[in-house]
Amino acid sequence: VPPPLAVAPVAGPTGGGAPGDSFASLEEIARAVSGCTRCRLHEQRTKAVPGEGSPGAALVFVGEGPGEDEDRLGRPFVGRAGQLLDRMIVAMGLQRAEVFIANVVKCRPPGNRDPLPDEIAACRPYLHAQLDLIRPQVICALGKFSAQTLLETKEPISKLRGQFREYRGTPLMPTFHPSYLLRGPERSPDKELVWKDLQQVLLRLGLPVPPPRARRSAP
Ligand code: SF4
User: Fold this and answer.
1) Are 59 and 140 in contact (CB under 8 A)?
2) What's the pLDDT band for 215 if we cut at 50, 70, 90?
3) In the chain, N or C: fewer CB atoms in 10 Å?
4) Quick count: other Cβ atoms within 10 Å of Cβ 69?
5) H or E stretch covering 80
6) What residues are in contact with ligand 1 under a 6 Å CB criterion?
């Protein structure tokens, strides 16, 4: 994993790059997100979830949006799905602190409904600013919603996964969401597909694929 990169200010949520409207660091973005009222999702959130991880991460995971646990704690992927994501990261031979974990929207949609188009549009500049600062080598989109939103397509995740696409010039691998994999033993074949996707990510990062026996924490 490369060392943290020197960062230049990038355009803020209004996109204009006006004084006071640019982010020089992930911390600045997190502060702006925590107080953000740009869309209706701020009304019912407990805590905004800006995202967390290494500012020099070679790999960024992007999910849909915070769930109940994430909303309570202000951290991404900390519930059951988050624990599975942690195991996936460890199975890759990485640590959670080495990657960056973000979401398409930073506040929990009520009842875990899908974010609406205007909410995604309002929040998108934060994700873009994060990606512009981190400049990852690979993005991994977790789940149908994240993949379809980032790639602006309605193709099913079963068709999208397994092949690199491009998002704003960065290779993007769509794969199944950890919460989908938790829906029962019938998802075991899909876990194997996720592991194949993650192996492709490792190869693209130039990192070794851990041998099967080392994958005690495999997804
Ligand atoms: S979801 Fe994004 S745009 Fe909407 S209030 Fe939260 S941080 Fe702001």
Assistant:
1) yes
2) low
3) N
4) 15
5) helix 80-91
6) 33, 36-39, 41-42, 48, 105-107, 119, 122-123
